[in-house]
Amino acid sequence: MYSTTQSDNARPFLTWQRILDWAQEHYRYRTFSKDEKIPARAGLLYLVQRGAVRLIGNAQVSASVKPKSSPSRMPLVASEEAFLGFVGAGQPFEIVAQSPFTLQSFAHVDQTAVIWLYWHDLDNWPHFRREVLDAFRYQHQRKLLWLSTLGQRRTIDRLLGFLTLLIEEYGQPCDDGYYLPWVLTHAQIGSAIGSTRVTVTRLMGKLRQRNLIQNYGDNLLCIPSNSDLRQQA
User: Fold this and answer.
1) 78 and 145, same domain (yes or no)
2) Contact assessment for residue 11 and residue 90, using Cβ atoms and an 8 Å cutoff
3) Which of 20, 147, 152, 211 shows the smallest number of beta carbons within 10 Å?
4) What is the pLDDT of residue 63?
5) Which of 166, 158, 227 is nearest to 199 (CA)?
6) What is the residue range of 179's domain?
């Protein structure tokens, strides 16, 4: 049920090593520091070789204000940002831009390594092309589950569903259950589920009281193996 995806077991080592060697030879390989923006653009294919990438969506929201010195309203454009998920080691991602929405990518952990290619570069590895398409198909299925979770009326249900989906996909085993190997702030969680940092902090306390989530290590989130996620939160 839970994933332990790593770059050395996501696909046969020999194939991955050939792609890595090719990327380094053609200057298509770069390592990023934590929270550093990845200069990705639409139309290219990106592969996470090591670490994790955080995807952020930005939407331009129009509003209007009425200055005291003028009877007419002036347009005001603000940007709303939302956390859209992770891309783990061995997985591909694309950047899509369609006004008024834009997608950005950031290294979520230090020493995150990314390879970039044109789609026609995959002609060098036909079997790998199929793996990439299968990976995108899987990501699409996960996004449908994400959308279903975000459709829950109660915020606490959206929160628990969101954390469960993340740990199902990226969780690592521990003594108590499975934990998310990367830190997420309450503000990032709030942006993902359409809530606020303060509300997320309050509801996380409720989930901990009911033993539906726990702390693990240095501010990491864990879902206990003995918790009944089917019960009402």
Assistant:
1) no
2) yes
3) 147
4) 54
5) 158
6) 135-233
Query: What tokens does 189 get?
Result: 């969680």
Domain count, the chain: 2
Where is the domain boundary, 127, 148, 174? 127
Instruction: Name residues of the chain where pLDDT drops below 70.
Output: 1-13, 60-79, 227-233
pTM: 0.81
pLDDT for res 59: 76
User: How far apart are the C-alpha atoms of 65 and 127, rounded to whole Å?
Assistant: 55
Give phi and psi for 109, each to the nearest 5.
-130, 160
For residues 154 and 207, membership in a common domain is answered with yes
| Residues 6 or more apart in contact with residue 101 via CB below 8 angstroms | 57, 58, 59, 60
For residue 108, what is the DSSP state? S
Q: How far apart are CA 121 and CA 159, in angstroms?
A: 40
**Residue 154: which residues within 8 A CB-CB, separation 6 or more?**
233
Of 77, 100, 127, the residue that ends a domain is: 127
**Does 118 lie in the same domain as 53?**
yes
The pLDDT value recorded for residue 62 is: 58
- In a shared domain, residues 167 and 197: yes
Secondary structure (3-state) at 70: coil
CA geometry: angle 192, 224, 228, nearest 5 deg: 85
Residue type for 87, please? Answer: V
Q: What is the pLDDT of residue 9?
A: 43
| pLDDT at site 217 | 85
Q: From residue 207, give the alpha-carbon distance in Å to each of 120, 164, 221.
A: 47, 12, 11
Question: How many alpha carbons fall within 13 Å on the CB side of residue 21?
Answer: 7
- Token pair belonging to 186: 């309450």
